[in-house]
Amino acid sequence: MKKLLIIITCIASLWLAGCSKPGFHLVHKIDVQQGNVITQDELNQLKPGMTRRQVQYIMGSPMIADVFHQNRWDYVYLMEPGYGEASGDHVTLYFEADALQRVEGSMHPQDISTDAPVPSHQVTLEVPPHERIPPGLLTRLWYWITFRTPGEV
Hints:
Layout: H1 2-18, E1 32-35, H2 40-45, H3 52-59, E2 72-80, E3 87-96, E4 99-105, H4 137-146
Antiparallel strand pairs: 1-2, 2-3, 3-4
């Protein structure tokens, strides 16, 4: 009886250790987007001397508007995919006398020369890449019981 208990314990340990490999996903993790989506088109529209209302119309409400630093607005964007590396951008806008003075951060406005064609105003939608994750054990068992394939509805 002790030998059977030892064998069952060893098999259960190996089975649970197999669940911890990187390709095996027991729990679904969702993609988390936080903050303001910052696009290069929005930054290109910013010009020194713009008022706070004009900047807010272009960029939206700032993520951080500190009470102690009222001349500084921070726009932060963070994308944490369920399976993968997190990425993000941040832009800090500085004002003096209600006028935009400078832009700092991971993204900067690009200088558009007068000879270059004016870019059209297009809406850019960022869609996270779709990763094909193989179905888990319970899903495969469900398909087997219901005589369906994973592509059927």
